[in-house]
Amino acid sequence: MEIAPKMPKSWNQASKPHKFCPGCGHGLVLKALGQVIDELGIQDRMVFGCDIGCSLLSWDFFDVDSVQTHHGRTTPVMVGIKRANPDLIVVAYMGDGGGYAIGSQHLVNAATRDDKITVILVNNTNYAMTGGQMAPTTMPGQKTETTPYGRNVEEAGYPMMGPEMVAAISHEGAYVARGSVARFRQLKNFIKKAIENQMAGRGFSFVEALSTCPTNWRTNAAQTWSFLEEQMTKQFPPGELKTPVVKEG
Ligand code: SF4
């Protein structure tokens, strides 16, 4: 008997096989999101926005309305869609390059304004699609194409602590968390809470997902896991950084 893989209903069954490299963490983040869309029954109300970089390879993953933008502009595009259609549930999906570098102003302003959207940002510590250059999240001492001797914080500064920043500037209805693809159920729970927070109309919701990029890290399976679990989680501790104040009545 042939057993078909269990796919979230929201996945686009007509799409081609995914285009991520073997061992890439993007697929796990998207699987978590797909399961949440199904569990919340919001497939018909969902608008999925993806950025440039490897995150754009998600544009035909879901059987939902989708839009692709560039360089962190996914956040303001989803803000516009949400403001024009408040009943829609919108998710802006991006990488650390787009969200924390070129598009950081959009993230800061959406969190400060308390726009009621959900941003999911994948942190794999490098600019992946362009070949593995130093990103805002590259860790001290980490080797990349543009830091061949390791990131020297005296020259290149310290990595961006995105959820910590968003937690500091957002308002009492915000939800902010950092998960990891190595802890799938926790990551999915964070994504679910972030979308539920948007559905309740409480405030801005943000989840950073620690993810793998074995292609640019140049790691085998064991090294990839060790880099994620032993090095990244020390620099970027997973957990909830802010939960919304729920008002009675
Ligand atoms: S380059 Fe890295 S982030 Fe991009 S698809 Fe490959 S493993 Fe994933």
Q: How would you characterize this protein structure?
A:
- With 249 residues, the protein is an alpha/beta fold.
- It has one domain: Thiamin diphosphate (ThDP)-binding fold, Pyr/PP domains (Rossmann fold, 3-Layer(aba) Sandwich), CATH 3.40.50.
- The strands form 2 sheets. The protein has a 7-stranded mixed beta sheet with strand order 2-1-3-4-8-7-9, with helices on both faces. Strands 5-6 form a two-stranded antiparallel sheet.
- The protein has 9 helices and 9 strands.
- The chain has helices at residues 26-40, 74-84, 96-102, 104-113, 153-156, 162-169, 184-199, 214-217, 221-235; strands at 46-50, 65-68, 89-95, 118-123, 126-127, 133-134, 175-180, 205-210, 239-242.
- Helix 1 (26-40) packs across helix 7 and helix 3 (96-102) packs across helix 4.
- The longest helix has 16 residues, at 184-199.
- It starts with 25 loop residues before the first helix and ends in a 7-residue tail after the last strand.
- Iron/sulfur cluster is lined by residues 20-21, 24, 26, 54, 124, 128-129, 213-216.
- Iron/sulfur cluster binds at residues 20-21, 24, 26, 54, 124, 128-129, 213-216.
